[in-house]
Amino acid sequence: MKLFLPLLMALAASCSNGQSAKQMDPSQSEQSSALIEAAIPLGGRVTDAANIISAKQEAALADRLALLEKSTSHQMVVVTVNSLGGQDVADFTRNLANAWGIGRKGHHDGVVVLVAPNERKVRIAVGYGLERTLPDPLCKTIIEQNMLPRFKEANFYEGIEAGVDALIEGLKRTG
């Protein structure tokens, strides 16, 4: 774990309403989504491809996300990845969310929390239907105040859990 500590000191915070910093034509976006989906299959509400949380922690987090979905109908997933494959974190997260179909069709109410520890990136991507509920400044604050301090201490699960807890509180406040 000591290896990650210096790397995470500069972890990049990033939030999104689903739009990319770089606009791609639809065929490129579809190709990227398909490649990401093939590389990282959806493993449930928590997909820990980077192996940074234990099975017990993953199960507890998945249970919390299931309760959230049951009580609000909003879908949230957490994903960790070893690499963004050279893609911008915004593009990667958006393509992954689209490939997996996170959120209810027609409601655009999905949330993806992505952590790429090797590249020191974290992103909260919010579907258009939740932009007012979880605006970019709130997501940025959640990353900076709830997640990054724990990541800097190599406490990945605690950081993810704190971020998810804050997002859930935001979703429950508005129903």
Question: If you had to describe this structure to a student in words, what would you say it looks like?
Answer:
This protein has 175 residues and is of the alpha/beta class. The chain has one domain: Diaminopimelate Epimerase, Chain A, domain 1 (Roll), CATH 3.10.310.50. Helix content is 49%, strand content 15%. The chain is built from 6 helices and 5 strands. Strands 1-5-4-3-2 form a 5-stranded mixed β-sheet, sandwiched between helices. Strand 2, helix 3 and strand 3 form a beta-alpha-beta unit. Helix 2 packs across helix 4, helix 3 packs parallel to helix 6 and helix 5 runs antiparallel to helix 6. The chain starts with a helix and ends with a helix. The N terminus is likely disordered. This is TPM domain-containing protein. Keywords: Signal.
Oligomer: single chain
- CATH class annotation: Alpha Beta
Distance between the amino and carboxyl termini? 38 Å
Query: Helix fraction?
Result: 40-55%
Tally of individual helices: 6
What's the CATH architecture name? Answer: Roll
- Give a count of the beta strands, DSSP E runs of length 2 or more: 5
**Amount of beta strand:** 15-25%
Structural class: alpha/beta
**CATH topology label:** Diaminopimelate Epimerase, Chain A, domain 1
The radius of gyration computed from the alpha-carbon positions, rounded to a whole number of angstroms, is: 15 Å
Domain TPM: 46-169
InterPro entries: TPM_dom
Protein name: TPM domain-containing protein
Pfam families: TPM_phosphatase
